[in-house]
């Protein structure tokens, strides 16, 4: 693996990002119900989408949401989506993406980065805890709300 970097989406990388394949069983965890519902109401201008590149290859995708006025505190500075290509998982790419998003949040003056995930065997819970998120609550759909202090 070379040096990782984040880039804004372009016509070619967005196709690669949409085509990232996950490991069996992971698809169900990519979009927690709370995000799927809120997506219909979220202003696209608050979205911060980036691809993770290893050389010229798209190996991951992360989308943050920065919306300081949002009525729901867990949507103000958060990880909306993060996924890493099946064959590139377990090599630190997810952690790199979260830390880059955390840097962006910090530079915007936020003191916390939050994320919502669905508990489950093939889900991302252990990843988020390992990266430093602490569980601070639960949504009405039984999902965990995690927070990383910046
Ligand atoms: C969750 C996901 C993004 C993690 O990406 P990744 O690149 O494989 O994770 P990393 O290699 O950066 O792992 C960072 C740390 O978390 C740990 N970790 C990652 N996944 C883990 C798991 N399933 N169980 C236990 N530990 C895990 C790693 O061992 C590593 O620990 P270390 O810092 O001690 O070395 C990836 O598995 C994925 O794309 N999942 C499917 C999509 C998804 O569920 N997204 C979340 C939606 S909210």
Automatic annotation (TrEMBL):
Keywords recorded for this protein, A-Z: Transferase
Keyword Ligase appears in the UniProt entry: no
UniProt cross-references to PROSITE patterns, sorted A to Z: GNAT (PS51186)
GO MF terms, alphabetically ordered: acyltransferase activity, transferring groups other than amino-acyl groups
Signal peptide from the UniProt entry: none
Ranges where the N-acetyltransferase domain occurs: 4-150
SUPFAM superfamilies documented for this protein: Acyl-CoA N-acyltransferases (Nat)
Pfam families: Acetyltransf_1
UniProt keyword annotation of Transferase present: yes
Source domain of life: Bacteria
Protein name: GNAT family N-acetyltransferase
Native source organism of the sequence: Glaciihabitans arcticus
């Amino acid at each position: 693996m070379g040096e990782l970097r984040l880039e804004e989406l372009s016509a070619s990388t967005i196709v690669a990002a949409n085509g990232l394949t996950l490991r069996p069983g992971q698809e169900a965890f990519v979009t927690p119900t709370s995000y799927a519902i809120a997506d219909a109401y979220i202003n696209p201008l608050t979205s911060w989408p980036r691809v993770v590149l290893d050389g010229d290859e798209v190996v991951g995708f992360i989308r943050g949401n920065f919306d300081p006025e949002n009525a729901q505190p867990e949507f103000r500075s958060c990880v909306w989506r993060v996924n890493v290509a099946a064959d590139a998982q377990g090599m630190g790419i997810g952690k790199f993406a979260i830390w880059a998003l955390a840097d962006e949040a910090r530079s915007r003056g936020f003191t916390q980065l939050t994320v919502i995930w669905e508990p489950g065997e093939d889900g991302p819970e252990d990843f988020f805890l390992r990266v430093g998120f602490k569980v601070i609550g639960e949504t009405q759909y039984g999902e965990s709300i995690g927070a990383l202090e910046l």
